[in-house]
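Handout for the seminar on molecular recognition.
Each group receives one record of this type.
Step one: identify the two inputs.
Step two: read the structure output and locate the region that could contact D-MYO-inositol-1-phosphate.
Step three: write two sentences on what you found, then compare them with the reference statements printed after the record.
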Amino acid sequence: SEKTLREIRDSLVDIARNAGQMMINADPSVCTSDTKKNTSDRVTETDKAIEKMVHSRLQSAYPNIDFLGEETFKVGQKLSDKPTFVCDPIDGTLNFIHGFPNTAVSLALTVAKKPVVGVIYNPFRGDLYTAVKGQGAYLTTASGRTHNLPIRSTPAALPSLNGCLVALEWGSERQGPNWDLRTSMSQTLLSSRSTGGAMVHSIRSSGSAALDFCYVAAGQMDLFWEGGCWIWDVCAGWCILEEAGGMVASANPGDWRPELEGRCYLAVRGAMREEQESVVRELWGLMGKRRF
Ligand code: IPD
């Protein structure tokens, strides 16, 4: 029920604040970090400790709800239709290691493989984004000046790709076809129309896909285009974005209703539906035959 979802949101907020305190207390410069696939794909002791705390708190409060977390994920594990908590203990681990304050804990609940609650908290800036399906998206800031501010803003026009501020991440694969696509698309997006590009205002790589979704939800960025990230990177952000009037299509052309686990996402900020769709078509058009 709606009340249950609001209670779950409140639990997730409480757990996210606890996780944030663990991030602040950890000294990333002495934090051991292991490499996963390569030297830019990293995990710290803090990632693991936070996921452990989140998992145990959720398990005791909601023993009947499944759990899927970045650090305990097993290859081949799939989201089921059953209610499931999805956890990224630290999204933006590289930022965390470097002390760059764009790092967040991202917690979500899915039902029938759709996100219905999303909570994203960046403890270094004190920004807390929350959403419950059908009940809007909200931002609370550390200063207290913004407390549960609805981020369903009156959507400004989104006339074309030209003039957009686009979030695009580099991921941890630094060779191969996905890498080629990121680098060539960056060039296409940035270069001027006379060379067949879009000349977007610029591109930004914040280092956290979860926060990129929040920035698009809040209308501070217009688009986020990414292939290769995982369900825990986007699940909470997806709920927040949709509740703020934004939409998600696939990063690859043709798919207007991508799956949560599809690993290809194009997030678009709130605007008139026709404008959102036309910008998606424009970006897909620039990809030509290129695909993630
Ligand atoms: C990463 C960040 C990054 C994205 C990567 C993700 P992590 O998450 O969201 O922006 O480009 O694909 O894996 O590893 O810091 O949780």
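Reference statements: The radius of gyration is 18 Å. The chain is about 35% helix and 25% strand.
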